[in-house]
Each structure stands twice: as structure tokens, then as C-alpha cells.
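Memo to structure team: turn this sequence into C-alpha cells by end of day. - J.P.
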Amino acid sequence: MTTHDAHEQENEYEGGAPDMSTGTTEPDGENNADAAIPELVIISGMSGAGRSTAAKCLEDLGWFVVDNLPPALIPTMVELGARSQGNVARIAVVVDVRGRQFFDNLRESLADLDAKQVTRRIVFLESSDEALVRRFESVRRPHPLQGDGRIVDGIAAERDLLRELRGDADLVIDTSSLNVHELRAKMDAQFAGDEEPELRATVMSFGFKYGLPVDADLVVDMRFLPNPHWVPELRPFTGLNDEVANYVYNQPGAKEFLDRYTELLQLIAAGYRREGKRYVTIAVGCTGGKHRSVATAEKLAARLASEGVETVVVHRDMGRE
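Reply from structure team:
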């Protein structure tokens, strides 16, 4: 269920507003003790980072999705949901810079929701400047904040505007190296029902010289092993090649590390399940993200998959050099 016109929804539920602190409403002087406060998710983040995809995923999961709602109207939207007699139990609101004239009201709205004990989460979609520029250029559209400047100017302005909200986010998803299906998998893992797999993992190889993945839950450093880059016959290959993988895992300590880290992940996975966390990103790094990290990510993902963890492998920096 979705809407792009919040005013139509307001008209549909004319009457008195509910008291969300007591679960009652008083239209025409009557009480409604059955009013239930909907669960709320606020989707925000960088333009081009996948907000629409995230919202569509929640819509497919049965959430009532409102796109580009002014932040000041979020409490009103929740009130209307509370008066729907359970028909609107979960609301997702997309907040972005198209409504920046109302953006300053967001913090006040969040404080209002917290005071009324509304269960709410903020999902922030992040992406690198490089990825965002590439996406805007591919669709030949300007960034909504670039004005007469360049795309990178608009990105910088938006990142500054959203910095505080990003810090308040409950879930940050970096989509720099994700395709649409991988982003949907992350959203499904967080918001789908019990019919979904208990735990999903993304194992991501990366190069430390390109920076840490911002959405990593766990980081593994494989730089304690010799670098195949310095072996001339291996340098052109990647960790996907058997020659490189065999070289890496014939080094002292490599197999032992994989065995013990897999055991550690079993303990962590059990804890995540107990805490209701259904998605984990494991970042495996080496210097350039080409040899050791790639080989290890593949082996680690295979171990997890063999134990029933649904696993996606992403090689963020392979081919970047």
C-alpha cells in the first residue's frame, strides 16, 4: 500500500486526533481503546543511494509507504495510522532533500514521537561520492542540490545537510557496491517476517588503501599473510584464481586462521540471532583488495553457506587498481 499524497490520507480519516500516549481517540466525544500505534520507519539518505528501492522493498512487505512527506507531518501520519483500526500497522516515510524547507522540523517531530513512545527506526542510505556521480551521470540528471554547480557540489551540500541525521540512524546501509537485488536482500533481512532466513551475511573483500567499508559489522585484516602482489607470476591474477588462493592458503597460519575465525563467527551468529539481528556484513581486507582478501572472502562465504547462513559475496575493490 502506498501513497504520494498525504492530504488524501488526512481527508480519509477526518475527526479527532488520537492520544497516542494512552491508545485512545475521541472523535465526536467517543473513546476508542483499540487504537494501536503503528510501527514507523523513516527512510532517508543520499540522493541516488537507493531510497526508492528501499521504500519499494518495504511496500512489497506490506508497509504503508509515504514518499517525500514533510517531516512536520510525520506525527500526523502516525496518528492517522493509529486510527485505522489496525489496517495500517506499519508505516514507512521517505524523507529527502526535496523537502529541505521542512527538514529542520524533523528533530522536533522525532522528539514528539519519542515522547509518545512510538516505535521508530531511521534507515540511512549511504554511498560514496564516486558511485553517486556515476549514477547521476548514467541517468543524465542533475543532483537536486547542485544548482549552477557540479554534481559533486550538490553531493557535498547534501552530505553536510544530512550529517546529523546519519549519526542518529539505527541502520546505515552503504550501497556503493550493491546492486538492486543486494539492497533488497539487506532490507528483507531487517524487516521481513519470520518466514525469511534467520541470518544473512554479506562477505565483502576490500582494500585498506581505499578505505574501510562504512557499513561493516566485522572487519578482518589479512595483511598478516605474504602478499601475492610481490610474486610476479601471481600479480596479474586475483584471489578468484586457484593459483592465488592456493598460494595464500599454503602460508603458515592461513588455514588455522580460517578455522578459528569460522568458529568465532558461529558464536557471534548465535548472539545475533538471540538479539534479533538478521543481517551481518563481514569485511575482509588486504592492501589492495585483489588477492588475499578476495581468496579469504570466498572461503569464508563457503564455510558460512555450508552452515546454513544465506551468504552474498561482494568484491568491492577488485579490478580497481
